């Protein structure tokens, strides 16, 4: 997040679910109100609509932001194929149900530990 207009209120929230931790770490910024927000992503961000009965699943490392009305849940697809590198996609995903939107970037954030 680069900036936001003053009518928007912000607070730092500790994440309660593991799915939120995967996307943004232990703490996230929660914004409330109306106004403009400036965010930065790798390449052009994509906004996905979430509606009741039509959940959206995203890669946690590509997930940038989501509506406050949505609470992500962790979805796993671990099988024998995953262990042999023959899986067809991500084995851990964030699933969003309800009414709102999810912003993703068309690139995964990969974090490398120093000295590894």
UniProtKB/TrEMBL annotation:
InterPro entries: AIM24, AIM24_sf, Trp_RNA-bd_attenuator-like_dom. Pfam families: AIM24. SUPFAM superfamilies: TRAP-like. Signal peptide: none annotated. This is AIM24 family protein. The lineage of its organism: Bacteria, Pseudomonadati, Planctomycetota, Planctomycetia, Pirellulales.
């Amino acid at each position: 997040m680069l900036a936001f207009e003053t009518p928007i209120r912000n607070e730092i929230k500790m994440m309660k679910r593991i799915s939120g931790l995967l996307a943004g770490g232990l703490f996230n910024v929660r914004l409330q109100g109306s106004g403009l927000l400036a965010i930065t992503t790798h390449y052009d961000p994509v906004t996905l609509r979430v509606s009741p009965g039509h959940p959206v699943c995203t890669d946690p490392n590509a997930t940038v932001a989501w509506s406050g009305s949505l609470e992500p849940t962790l979805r796993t697809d671990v099988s024998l194929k995953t262990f042999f590198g023959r899986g067809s996609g991500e084995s851990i995903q964030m699933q969003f149900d309800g009414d709102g939107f999810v912003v993703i970037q068309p690139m995964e954030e990969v974090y490398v530990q120093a000295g590894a």
